[in-house]
Amino acid sequence: MLRKTLVLIFILTATLCQAQRGRRGMLEYAAGGRAGTGTGLTGQYFYTDAHVIEMILYARWQGFSTTLLYEHHMQMFDVRGLKWYLGAGAHASLYPVGTNRPDIDNDFVGHVFLPGVDAIIGMEYFFHNVPLMISVDLKPEYNFGIVNRPDLTNGGISLRYRF
Predict the structure, then answer these.
(1) For 22, 51, 81, 104, which has the most beta carbons within 10 A of its beta carbon?
(2) What CATH number is given for 2-162 in this structure?
């Protein structure tokens, strides 16, 4: 049910948005889907070609998480449209008790809230003739609270529509 809702939100967003140039003559926004350790949505705001704010909303272990990141993008080799990036940010996650997340004790009642900090490193490719981009990344995080430890297994592949 959650996946169908996420797909519907993505389709509606892509349908309602027109491909247009921003104030600075560049495409400023990107929105799309993300798959990997969790499944969800990703959106980016390019306030320059090198400085990007990214928000990720995804489902994992029967709960959900939202992440806000600052990223610095840099040219990779001499390949037009290929960039690598690194960044940092924070997340907030909510998981129900009884989830299959291995580090949550089932003695708790209700839901478990996990705030934390994130890092990200990845690479992306901007297609030349269509406003699409694809990226792959590793996004380790450190959780605070009940689960006070790092999670180094996060990562994903994203496909975004740039407008």
Answers:
(1) 104
(2) 2.40.160.20
